[in-house]
Each structure stands twice: as structure tokens, then as C-alpha cells.
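Protein modeling request. Please complete all fields; requests missing the sequence field cannot be processed.
Requester role: graduate student
Desired output: 3D structure, C-alpha cell encoding
Chains: 1
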Amino acid sequence: MPRAWRRLSGEARMLNLSEREALGGYQERSHALPGTGLTAPGSSDQRSSFLRWPLRALAWPYGLAVRARTALYERGWLPRRRLPCRVVSVGNLTVGGTGKTPVVISIAEWLLARGKRVGVLSRGYRRRSRAPQLLVSDGRRILEGPAEAGDEPHLIAWRCPGAVVAVGTDRYRLGRWVLERFPIDCFVLDDGFQHLALHRDVDLLLIDASDPGGLEALLPAGRLREPLTAAARATALLLTRADVVAGPNTLLASIRAATGRDSRPILIRFIPEALVNMVTGMLEEVASAAGRTAVAFSGIGNAA
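Delivered output (304 residues):
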């Protein structure tokens, strides 16, 4: 087992992970996904066949382009630049939510608690500002709101006081820009698995155990950004929401078949810590919601 795998496995507790608890969850209603051997919780395939096949035809050139791009980086024909400090990347294979932001926050908090000077680099999805580099937090105060910076970078800055948070499309240039202004020991790269232009020391890949249907097909026929074989690049595989399925064995078998690696994943479950009063901004205990009527809505990729 590579040293990085051993280190990450030993530090699983920092992410509040417990394999025994994760595998002791409940069984969701599910159905088989044709041709995949996987099951998707509570979903149904309503796409008509006349639409499915054209999308699959479009997925073929997309997949070819993705494989070609990856090969260019792996063979050194496209440069992979390196920042003068450690870089931990957190990413996924699919569009949609797999829990990247909570994992980024947990890693940043863990590093900060150990006296490390932490920077978080994010693309800032759907941010209003078009600046090539934007400082969201200088580690002491939050400088940009969610509209300018993007929801997730703003949340990371709020949850991780002490971390420098910045957004920009080119993460290498963004990292150099941050280093010109702040001393940084370690960068955490948000949504960085496909950002091959930047070298990373640890590459964490998240897969949602509750949504194996996301691995069914490449864009635009499915939600895969890359073929499942790309999981072989990861330093460690993190299965999120592992507590809402009876067991991820079928999913793991598919990943092993695609990558040729028999690596033990880190299993993650998400535990609500508190409720935030939207009027006062004060935190309340989760138990305080017991017996109360509530209307729930979500703007994140997967609220499971």
C-alpha cells in the first residue's frame, strides 16, 4: 500500500469517518441500471430511446477528447506546473454534488488545527466577478460575498477562519498570486480532479455511494466528466453518503474492474452539526427541530 494511502487511511478520523457506522445504514429503494450492474436509489429512467441513443453517440467523441487530453498530460506533452508548497486536491468524476465542499472544509480545519497556514483555491462556480483572481478571505475577514465569489468559496471562508480563500480559473496562477501575498504551507484545491495542469501531492476522488447511476455514462448521455477508468489516478477513493446504502460492494466491484486496483476506500457519512437561524444568524442544536414543522429546500447538488 503506498505511503500516501496509509497516511490518509490513518487520518480518516479527521473527516469523521467510520466504516462500521457507514455500513450500518438503511437500505434505500433502488432499481437496476441497464448494462451497468449498478443500482440507483429511488430513480427511474424516463428518457425515451429516441433521445438516449443520440446522446450516447455524442458521448463517444466527448470521451475520446477527454482520454486524449489526459494522455497528453500523462506523457508530458502538456505541462503540469508545480506550486512551491503541498497541494491536496478534492474532486469527483461526475457533475452534481458528491460532498466536495464538506470534505474541503474538514481538511482545511484539520490542517489549521495543526498550525498549518492554509490556502483554498476554487474556481468559484457561477460567481458574478470575472476577475482572473479574487480574494474571498485573507484569513482574518471575509472580503467577498457569495454573489461575487460563489456560494461554495464563501461557505468555505465562513467555516474556515484562518484560511486564505481565493477563486480563479487558472489554479496555478491563482496559487502563485496568493503566495505573493500570504505565506502558505498547504493549498487545498476545490474541485481539482480534472484540473490536470496543476501538480498535486494528494489527489482525493469522491464518489457518491448513494448515486451509482451517476457513473452510468459520459456527458451528455450521463453525468460522468471522465470515464470511470480515470479513478486510477486518485491517491485515495472516498465514498460519500456510504451510510444511506446497505453496502457499496457492487459499486466498488465496478470501480475495481475499471481501474484494475483493489484499494480499500475511505467511507464517509455526513452528520448535521447545527441549524443556522436565517434571521439572526445564530446557531441552534439540530435536536431543537424535533417536533417542529419545517419546509425544506436545497440548492446543492445532492441533498441526500
